[in-house]
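Issue 218. Parser rejects a valid record. Input:
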Amino acid sequence: MVTYDEVVSNPEVEELIRNAQKQIDVLGYTEHSIRHVTVVAQRAAYILETLGYNSHRIELAKIAGYMHDIGNSVNRVDHAHTGAILAYNILKDMGMPVSDRTEIMMAIGNHDELTGTAVSDISAAIILADKSDAHRSRVSKKDRNLFDKHDEVNYAVTNSELRVDTEERKVILDLTIDTKICPVIDYFEIFMERTKMSKRAAKYLGLWFELIINDTNLL
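Output the parser choked on:
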């Protein structure tokens, strides 16, 4: 089996992530580099591990999480689809069995809220991990006068925690938002479709998606 550590050490993957971030910077989007993909990989693995999935599925989820945004090296538009094909071919070259790389391709290809949905345990975990990563550390602009609404909302999130409650069968996204920077309603304006996608992903895993902002349960 191709491992997560081998994928992280792969120079082709590293270069794709680096160049994806170059394009993201030019376009003015929030950070999608090593920090983000590592967070997604770790959170996806945590979700499946907490739910009792086997080590093989967990490893595939980590790999899919780490590679999920490499399509941004081609174009932001349809990056989930191009990234899925790129990942499939890289993993093929690395010797991963077709059954495993197909699972990863499917998860990556379905992680964007405009075109995707949860179609497997791995894809559901990737969606929840990806959409939960709102945080001020994702804002790359230094001058707040240049912030757009996405920057303002992410910069206002000072803490973001994703946890799974197996007893109550729910996954909880717990955010702290500095309302001096932006009102909570701005979060929903930006993240409504992502929140809906997270709810569907949680449902696929047999969970309820709960959103807590500033200690208030909103979903």
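Fixed in the parser; the record now loads. The chain has one domain: 4-217.
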